Amino acid sequence: MKKINYKGRILGLLIVAFITTNAFLIYLDEGEQVDRKSFINEWSQSITYDLYEKMDTRGVFASEESEPVYFNEETGSFNEFLVSEGDTVNEGDGLYTYNVQNYYQQEARLQSEVSRIEEEIDAIEDFIDDIESYRVPDPPEEDNDTGLFNNNDDSNDPPPQSYVETEYLKEEKIAEQEAELAKQEAMLEMTEDQLDQLQEDGDQITVTSAFSGTVADISKDLKAPLLTLESTNLVLEGTIHEQERNQIEEGMPVELNVNEIEYETTGILESLDEFPEDIDVNKSSRYPFTVTLENPGEELLPGYHADVKIVTNESLDVVTAIEAALETEENLFAWVMNDEGVVERREIETGLDEKGLVEIVSGLEDGEWLAVEPKDEFRDGRVFFTPMNMDDLRVRQMFDMERQSMLNYGLLGLLSR
C-alpha cells in the first residue's frame, strides 16, 4: 500500500493559501499601504519628427494647355495639312496651307490683325510696368514689450501674413501677364509671317504655329477647330467629394505616385473650382482641382493615373510618441520615467497623428522613456523592474578581452573591496 505524503500536501496547501491571501490583500489595498512596484515589459522613447495630415484621392495627367487652331473659309480655300496627329511642333512650324481668294481683302485683314495684336502687346507691357512699380506697403512691426506695432527696421520677426500674401499675388500677376505677353508676341510673329507670304507670293499662305506642343487632333472634315495642339507640360487633374471640399485649399503640397511605372513626384494644388462638375440632387457633388508638378519626369504621359495625397496639415520638428504608449480615462496621459528613475502618470496634450505616431503638444520632451506594456502593472511614483535583455549583455566581449586587461580589472575589483 502506497504511503501518502501528508507533510508535502500540507506544505503545498499552505503555499497556495499564502499566495492567495497576499493577492487578495493587495486587491483590497485601496489606500496602497502595500509597497507595490511597477513591472514594465516594453518601453518606447519620444522622438522629434515631422508629421503630416493627408487626404487621399486619385487624378489623371493631362496637358497643361490646349490650343485650338481655326480656318476661316472666307479667307480662301483649304489646301493641305502639313502635320499629322501625334507630331511635335514648335513655334513657327507650318500647320496647313490655303489658297487666297481675294488678295486685297486678305492683305487688309492681316494688316488689321497685326495692328490689333501690337496694341494688345503695348497694353500688356504697360500693365506689367504698373504692377512692377507698385510698392507693397511695409508691414508694421510688433513691439516686444508693449505688444503694439512699430516701424523699427531692426526686428527679425517674419512679416504679417497679409503682407506676404500681397507680395505673392503681385508676383503671380506679373507671371500671368508675362505668359500672356509671350503668347501675343508669338501670334504677332505668325500673323506677320502670313502677311509677308501674301505680299511675296500673292497666292498660297502657310499657317504657322504660335504654340509649341503636340498635335492632339486633326479635323479631316475641316470642321472647327481645324487642329488642336496640346502642350508637352503636364498637370494632374482630379475631383474631390463635396464632403472633403472645405478641407483643402489652393497652394497645399501634393504627393503623387504612379504605380504602373513606379514613379513618384510632388506638386502644388494650383486650382480648386468653386462649382461642381454637375449638380444632381441624388448624387454627391464633385469639385475639379488641378495640380502643377514641381519635377515632372519624361516618362509621364497624358492619361496616366496617379494616387494623390494632399497635405492638409503639418507639424514640423515636433515631439512625438507612439499611440500605444498613450492612455485615456478622463484626460489623456502617459506613464513616463522621470529624472528620479521612477514611473509617473503624466497628463499630456496631443495634436496631429500619422500612422500610429502622435504629436505631443505638451507633457513630454524629446528623448523621454514611456512605459508601453503591460498597462495594468504600472504604478504612479513607484520604482519599477523590467526583464533583462540578454542581447544587451556583452558577455562575449568579456572573454574576447586580452588576458592582461582581465587580470587588471580583477585586481582592481579585489582592491576596491
TrEMBL record:
Cited InterPro entries: BSH_YknX-like, MdtA-like_C
Residues covered by region (Disordered): 134-160
Domain Multidrug resistance protein MdtA-like C-terminal permuted SH3: start-end pairs: 327-370
Annotated keywords: Coiled coil
TM annotation in the entry: none
KW Hydrolase (keyword) present: no
Cellular component GO terms, alphabetical: efflux pump complex
Domain YknX-like barrel-sandwich hybrid, residue spans: 69-223
Gene3D superfamilies xref list: 2.40.30.170, 2.40.420.20
Residues forming coiled coils: 100-127, 169-208
Keyword NADP applies: no
GO function terms (MF aspect): efflux transmembrane transporter activity
Protein name stated in the entry: HlyD family secretion protein
Organism: Halobacillus dabanensis
